[in-house]
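As a next step, we paired sequence with structure tokens, yielding the entry below.
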Amino acid sequence: MTDLLPPAVLDAVLGHPGGSLVSCRSEPVTGSSGAATGAVTRLSGQARLGRDQVSFTVIRKSCRPLTTGRHAAGAADPRHWANWRREPLAYASGLLPKGPGLAAPRCYGVIGDTVYLADAGATPEAPHVAAHRRGRWQADVAVPDVPWLSGHQLAQRIAVSDLSWTGMDVPAHIPALWQERHDLLERLDRVPRVLVHGDFSHGNLVAAADGSDTVALDWATFGVGPVGADLASLALTTLGRHLTDYLDGLAGRFDTADVELGYRVTLALTGAGRIHWMVSRGMRPPAGYVDFVTAEATSCLCP
């Protein structure tokens, strides 16, 4: 059982050394996972501490190198968004948010390329709350000088993505957005950089039981990107407009025009790429998806 839950991790879970495992079972945590994720399992069982028997639940997440696909060649670079060592390094660094407001799951330990985390539960966070708290955290935290933070993920993805729109049944302005990708990325270069989660999607955002924190899961793409980029990730998974909430959280730390540009360019290019991915595989985009991308990009991007 100690292969599943090492003694040092058990000590952290119990908050005291000297505990022993009584039982430990493992079940896979299914769902989407990052490119560098090896496996995610939920460990649960009983431990003995003195005369007491204590129940526990721990999320065990292992990371592994990306070896296939168009991003595999670049993923060995510590600054590449898919580098597998980033999430263990992030949890060990102390740089992740701890609340109140925005928080990463509590980390019980990092052993090699495996992290042991508190189970944050499964209650989805309200998107407007997550947007505000994300802005507040980004406004207060400086970008640290560490070598393993992801670089600009969108630019890295586009650099190895040559999409053909021939024969695709999509509105003409969607491929037109993609054709402008290099010019749009140049515009993003002028937007202030902040610490970004990199996959601030609704499925990665859990409401703490007491309401004090939005717990953001999956920090594998933690890095540096344009202000507004994380809001675009949230918007594309909720089809909701929360720019006002995000700006309120930023509290004037950045120019509104810069924030809006970072949000709209990231949303436009990411959304266009996802539409291509879906249509090229014979999938119909979710109801309202194309219209949402169009509307959010129209004010400053669409031809």
Q: What stands out?
A: The CA atoms of residues 103 and 143 lie 17 Å apart.
